[in-house]
Design goal:
There is one protein chain. 31% of the residues lie in helices and 26% in strands. It folds into 2 domains: 91 residues, no CATH class; 99 residues, Immunoglobulin-like, CATH 2.60.40. α1 packs antiparallel against α2. The protein contains 4 helices and 8 strands, in the order ααααββββββββ. It has 221 residues and is of the alpha+beta class. The strands form 2 sheets. Strands 3, 4, 6, 7 and 8 form a 5-stranded antiparallel β-sheet that branches. A hairpin with a 2-residue loop joins β1 and β2. The protein starts with 11 loop residues before the first helix and ends with a strand. The mean pLDDT is 88.
Amino acid sequence: MTRRSDWWPGARTEQLAMAQNWVKTLSNTYKPWKIDTVAMQTFTDLTVKADTALREAQSESTRTPVATAKCKAAFAQLKEAARDIKKRYFHVPPLVDADLVSLGLKPRDTTPTPSGTPAAQVTIETYLVGRRELGLRFIYLTGSADDKANKGCRVFYRVTAQGEPEPQGPDDLHNSFFTKRKKDILRFEYGDSGKICYMAVQVENDSKKGPWGPMVNALIP
């Protein structure tokens, strides 16, 4: 079975069951949650409408293309109304976990997942994109991009003209940008064509940094 990250069920029978449970649960408690009477009545009417439409679409005696279209439209309206109620009323004041469970919703997970310190080492493979543009492909020498500790890559670089001293190491690369992509593009200023760009990468996770990758260079097209 496919795992769903959304709270709204996938099957119409499950959607209807949730809506009917909301109507039952909220019938005596919607006032403390500040759900106005009109919104509650509208949601109740849409739940009844969806129930009737589903029965007609499933019955052999009433199942027609028109009934199917009406059922689809009814559940689309029900979904929109459910999302509106959840957004507008369930957070002011916020519901406690018991309230969320009673409505078939999952309590919030307020415990942050530790992501760890990045330890991967990444290098760059360049490719041509356009004039004064270098494509960058990030290659993991150690570790994996799927590791949550490896949030993204900080690319340090420096452009050097012929005759200028070469950078001796990554600490001499003073420009940088951060990316979470597997590939990115580095664009240069007018007049940089023919110069050399030196680059090195550090994996970053917020304020935590991984080891330097090897310094590479490429001719700017």
